[in-house]
UniProtKB/TrEMBL annotation:
<dbReference type="InterPro" id="IPR000808">
    <property type="entry name" value="Mrp-like_CS"/>
</dbReference>
<keyword id="KW-0963">Cytoplasm</keyword>
<feature type="binding site">
    <location>
        <begin position="85"/>
        <end position="92"/>
    </location>
    <ligand>
        <name>ATP</name>
    </ligand>
</feature>
<feature type="binding site">
    <location>
        <position position="258"/>
    </location>
    <ligand>
        <name>[4Fe-4S] cluster 2</name>
    </ligand>
</feature>
<dbReference type="Pfam" id="PF10609">
    <property type="entry name" value="ParA"/>
</dbReference>
<comment type="similarity">
    <text>Belongs to the Mrp/NBP35 ATP-binding proteins family. NUBP1/NBP35 subfamily.</text>
</comment>
<comment type="function">
    <text>Component of the cytosolic iron-sulfur (Fe/S) protein assembly (CIA) machinery. Required for maturation of extramitochondrial Fe-S proteins. The NBP35-CFD1 heterotetramer forms a Fe-S scaffold complex, mediating the de novo assembly of an Fe-S cluster and its transfer to target apoproteins.</text>
</comment>
<dbReference type="GO" id="GO:0016226">
    <property type="term" value="P:iron-sulfur cluster assembly"/>
</dbReference>
<protein>
    <submittedName>
        <fullName>Cytosolic Fe-S cluster assembly factor NBP35</fullName>
    </submittedName>
</protein>
<keyword id="KW-0479">Metal-binding</keyword>
<keyword id="KW-0547">Nucleotide-binding</keyword>
<feature type="region of interest" description="Disordered">
    <location>
        <begin position="1"/>
        <end position="43"/>
    </location>
</feature>
<dbReference type="GO" id="GO:0046872">
    <property type="term" value="F:metal ion binding"/>
</dbReference>
<dbReference type="GO" id="GO:0005634">
    <property type="term" value="C:nucleus"/>
</dbReference>
<dbReference type="GO" id="GO:0005524">
    <property type="term" value="F:ATP binding"/>
</dbReference>
<keyword id="KW-0411">Iron-sulfur</keyword>
<keyword id="KW-0067">ATP-binding</keyword>
Length: 344
């Protein structure tokens, strides 16, 4: 018989409820008080257990930092996660474009938190790669890409820009907590959380730390081909199990638009219907398709706003439609979030 994960139906709920639960080296024995118990590792029944030292040193009870995070983020109106099960679909690129889109309204203040600890690319895309973190008695100050666009990333903490971050889960979780608890985000209209691919440590930590203060929802990013859609389905399933609302799905790289003649060609063929079909199948909103445009990559490389540089491009018009669709799903006025006078 082939191995199956279905034999442990409670394991998913347990991980979501206790993402910081210690990793045990042996099954919990009979009469075990439980790894989260105050008696863990010290009770008589713990004597001789291979997990004794792990349980004795594990944190006990509710996380005391959760109320501090909630207080720190009290001035943030909307929190949006940018997710995708697959790497390489343009998730960080979309996050930077969405940040610039929101920031085109000078009355709105936007924050971007880069939780892709091992591959932080947001600072490069937003033109603040050379910034450092300033620490004061009130907390860490984010870097400002624009007067109304703040950024926080591990990139600002690296001695050299090309240094690798070789960390296990607990260190990643600790830094994400600091980004939420110690950074002076102030009053924001939107906080965008860029995440790495998958459904693992970083995602569990963000969900746990923000649950009390509230998450508006998640935006899924995919490309048209089935290889990408396979993993996006898993990400949607993660959100549903974790209680995160899926605000909608964006199909990125849906075609190539020639900068000269604006003719669009399919590069990644939607063999199973693409993002639109997936959104219909999963019962979520389809926010739109964004075509490939080499100028998006160029704008990201130079840390410039694609909206300012190429406002009349097909990709820019598509992105504006995505932003307005997202605003509608969040119950906001699209013409306020993305003012009509900025449209091409």
């Amino acid at each position: 018989m082939a191995p199956s994960l279905e034999a442990e139906p409670d394991s998913v709920a347990s991980v979501l409820a206790n993402p910081q639960k210690p990793q045990l080296v042996a099954p919990e024995p009979e009469h075990c008080p439980g790894p989260e118990s105050q008696q863990a590792g010290t009770a008589d029944s713990c004597a001789g257990c291979p997990n004794q030292a792990i349980c004795a040193t594990a944190p006990k009870g509710p996380d005391p930092d959760i109320p501090l995070i909630t207080a720190r983020l009290s001035g943030v109106k909307h929190k949006i996660l940018i997710l995708s099960g697959k790497g390489g679909v343009g998730k960080s690129t979309f996050t930077s474009l969405l940040a610039h889109a929101f920031a085109t309204n000078a009355e709105q203040t936007v924050g971007v938190m880069d939780t892709d600890i091992c591959g932080p690319s947001i600072p490069k895309m937003l033109g603040v790669e050379g910034e450092t973190i300033h620490v004061s008695s009130t907390g860490w100050s984010p870097a400002w890409a624009m007067d109304n666009l703040a950024v926080m990333s591990i990139q600002f903490m690296l001695p050299n820009r090309d240094d690798a971050i070789i960390w296990r889960g607990p260190k990643k979780n600790g830094l994400i907590k600091q980004f939420l608890k110690d950074v002076e985000w102030g009053d924001l209209d939107f906080l965008l959380v860029d995440t790495p691919p998958g459904t693992s440590d970083e995602h569990l930590s963000v969900n746990t730390y923000l649950k009390e203060s509230g998450i508006d929802g998640a935006v899924m990013v995919t490309t048209p081909q089935e290889v990408s859609l396979l993993d996006v389905r898993k990400e949607i399933d993660f959100c549903r199990k974790a209680g995160i609302k899926v605000l909608g799905l964006v199909e990125n790289m849906s075609g190539f638009v020639c900068p000269k003649c604006t003719h669009e060609s399919e590069i990644f063929k939607a063999t199973t219907g693409g993002g639109r079909k997936l959104a219909e199948e999963m019962g979520i909103a389809f926010l739109g398709s964004v075509p490939l445009d080499p100028r998006i990559g160029m704008a990201c490389d130079y840390g410039e706003s694609f909206f300012d540089s190429f406002p009349d491009s097909p990709a820019c018009r598509a992105l504006k439609g995505v932003v307005k669709g997202l605003a509608t799903e969040m119950g906001l006025d699209p013409e306020v979030v993305m003012p009509a006078e900025d449209d091409a």
